Amino acid sequence: MMFRKACVETRRQEARARNPELFDRLIELAHISNHSECWPVHRNIGKDGYGILRVNGRKERAHRMMFELYFPNVPAPVVRHKCNNPGCINPAHLREGTPHDNAIDRMLSKRGGDLRGEHNGRAKLTDSQVREIRASKATGAELARRFGISKVMACRIQRGEAWKHVN
User: Fold this and answer.
1) I need a surface site. Which of 20, 58, 156, 160 has the fewest CB within 10 A?
2) What are 121-129's contacts with CB under 8 Å, separation 24+?
3) In the prediction, which pLDDT does 18 show?
4) What is the model's pLDDT at position 141?
5) 5-108 has which fold?
6) Is the CB of residue 118 less than 8 Å from the CB of residue 133?
């Protein structure tokens, strides 16, 4: 959510008015140079790079708290970073989303890597085995036995419904 320069101070005052103590704690956590750059948290950083603080006895992520102060009426199952910086709490860099949106962001930014197919630690097949299944005229049951997968999965691979990223 981008802010026009004229709105920046008004938005800041509104956010602070919602919970002055929490707002001040968040601001103290970050290095703030200007309104367009990242506001990285410089202390209370979790092992995943997100800023953390205690709110009502619970550990909360700093970017989530900042988002809720600035956008109280925006339902957000997940708060995403436009800047791909997990330590940033600049509200102009935060946006609402779903877990699916977040996974796509992570893949596109190469933060989590591409975990599709054989790159997934739980995969039973390699890309070449998938190509072999697609080229095969064998039944789903035969392919399932040969490759140690379910018949349903073998059929889905043959139809191109699973492992879509493999040509």
Assistant:
1) 58
2) 124/148, 124/149, 125/149, 125/157, 125/163, 127/163, 127/166
3) 94
4) 96
5) Homing Intron 3 (I-Ppo) Encoded Endonuclease; Chain A (3.90.75)
6) no
Per-domain residue ranges of the chain? 5-108, 117-159
**What is the rounded distance in angstroms from the CA atom of residue 83 to the CA atom of residue 89?**
10
Which of the 8 DSSP states describes residue 34? Answer: -
Residue 114 pLDDT grade (very low, low, confident, very high; cuts 50, 70, 90)? low
Confidence (pLDDT) at 123: 86
Backbone angles phi, psi at 153, to 5 degrees: -65, -40
Q: What is the reported pLDDT for 111?
A: 67
Buried b (16+ CB within 10 A) or exposed e, 96-129: ebeeeebeebbeeeeeeeeeebbeeeeeebebeb
